[in-house]
What we know:
Blueprint: E1 2-7, H1 11-22, E2 27-33, H2 36-46, E3 50-54, H3 62-72, E4 78-83, H4 88-97, E5 101-105, H5 109-117
Parallel strand pairs: 1-2, 1-3, 3-4, 4-5
Helix pairs in contact: 2-3, 3-4
Amino acid sequence: xxxxxxxxxSLSVARQLEKIINESGDFSCVxxxxxxxEAIKMNHSDNPDIxxxxxxxxxxxxxxxxxxxxxxxxxxxxxxVTSLGGVGDKFTEALxxxxxxxxxxxxxxxxxxxxxxxx
Length: 119
């Protein structure tokens, strides 16, 4: 079973994603970080297989954290999470920085799990 770290400043969004992950049978949620700085620490301590990270968070946002994670852990697998309106240029930038894919909110369980299984 692959371990997934959820990174989102919204507790309700994080819980929705954790529920999809934990009910899949293929993945388990190993933790929840509220911003990019926590994600970097938890990647080191919890060693998740996949990180699902929101792009827009207070403190350290997802793209800044992705830049750091890519340097600190060349094997890191990050899937960015964004609302439908926030894709555009940031989507392209996230992929250039090493994100494996982007999941849109609101979540569709089948789509989330398909993306995670492709990693």
